[in-house]
Automatic annotation (TrEMBL):
One Pfam family recorded for the sequence: PMP22_Claudin
Subcellular location: Cell junction, Desmosome; Cell membrane; Cytoplasm
Superkingdom assignment: Eukaryota
Any GO BP annotation: apoptotic process
Keyword tRNA-binding: no
Matching InterPro entries: P53_induced, PMP22/EMP/MP20/Claudin
Name of this chain's protein: p53 apoptosis effector related to PMP-22
Bilayer topology annotation: Multi-pass membrane protein
Keyword Cell membrane part of the UniProt annotation: yes
Amino acid sequence: MVVCGLACWRCRWLLPLLLGLAIIMGIIALAGRGWLESESEPYVQQASLWESCTRGEGDPNWNCESLMDYGWGRAAAATYLVGFVILVICFALAVIAFSVEILRFNFVRGIGGLLFVVAAFQIIGLVIYPVKFTEEIPLTGDNMFSWAYGFGWASTVVVIGCAFFFCCLPNWEDEVLGNIKPTYYYSSPERAPYLN
């Protein structure tokens, strides 16, 4: 019977796949217009990482204002975008690291360190945005930080989890490479008298 845990060489593609999932969620966060939305009808407020849009109750057209005109808007976008670019680099490095038969464990630990940097940049962007947005942009009606903002946090949480696994993976080097002999446990000495 073969057991495939996290430290199993056959399961080495789980971590790069999780990084790929974080990239997809990051793309949704970067492109989504649902960072801030009106909570209920009439839907008069909508914002993305890049712009804030409002409209009158009966008006079908959105009037949009770029958040790049604000220093905090540029800072939030830049920090989240820098984190995203480093995440894409980490994904490429992880694919390369796990494609090589002789896995370089110090290289894997370096990817984990970079992923902590990614998480730091993304958290900075995700904290700057709501704090400064609510201070400096006039809000109309009841609003909530919505699905695209949630995808940004989901991407960050996956990155943090992967960072821990990449940093801890070298501790299981022998298990991953199959260098440990299996240990068999017997239920009673009668069944295995030669162990005494």
